[in-house]
Specification:
Elements lengths: L1 H9 L4 H8 L9 E2 H4 L12 E3 L10 H27 L3 E3 L8 H14 L2 E3 L7 H19 L1
Helix pairs in contact: 1-4, 2-4, 4-5
C-alpha cells in the first residue's frame, strides 16, 4: 500500500525515499483532525486525532505533505487493525515485524495508538528479518526431522 500509493501520488516507489520526503511533511495539509471539526475540547478525543485520512488534502499540499499523509494512513491502518484483532482475542501485546517495523517516522504513530487504546506494541531487535528467521527455523526443523528418519 505504501509503495503503490506513493508511486501513484508522488512518483516514488522506494521506501527510503518516501520516508525521507515525509520527514518534512505537514499532516495539517492532508488529514482532517478533530480540531478541524469542532472548536470545543472533547474530553475523550484529543484535538490532533485523525478524523479522516486525506480528508483535508489542501491543493497547496507539497509532495512532502502527501508522503507524510501516505505514511500516516498506512501506519494508522495497520495499528488500528492490530488493535481490533487484539480486542477480539483479548490480548494487549502486539508484535510488529517486517521491513516497515523499523521506520522511525512511524514510531510516533504507533506510540499514539498504543497509548490511546491501551495496547503494547513490541518491535523485536532485527524485526525486519523475522520472516527469513522463521523460514530458516522451519527449514532446520524439517531437515533435522528428515535426518532422524
Amino acid at each position: 500500500t505504501l509503495l503503490g500509493l506513493s508511486k501513484q501520488m508522488i512518483g516514488l516507489n522506494q521506501v527510503d525515499n518516501i520516508i525521507n520526503l515525509a520527514k518534512d511533511g505537514d499532516l495539517g495539509q492532508i488529514d482532517l483532525s478533530i480540531a478541524d471539526l469542532t472548536s470545543r475540547q472533547l474530553p475523550t478525543l484529543p484535538d490532533n486525532l485523525t478524523a479522516s485520512n486525506f480528508g483535508k488534502m489542501n491543493e497547496t499540499a507539497s509532495q512532502a505533505d502527501i508522503a507524510l499523509g501516505i505514511v500516516n494512513l498506512v501506519f494508522q491502518t495497520v495499528g488500528m487493525l492490530c488493535v481490533f484483532a487484539s480486542q477480539l482475542k483479548g490480548v494487549k501485546d502486539i508484535v510488529l515485524t517486517g521491513n516497515l517495523s523499523t521506520v522511525k517516522l512511524a514510531q510516533g504513530i504507533i506510540d499514539t495508538i498504543s497509548q490511546r487504546f491501551g495496547v503494547n506494541f513490541i518491535i523485536p531487535q532485527n524485526s525486519e528479518y523475522a520472516t527469513a528467521t522463521g523460514a530458516a527455523l522451519v527449514y532446520l526443523k524439517h531437515k533435522s526431522y528428515e535426518e532422524i528418519q
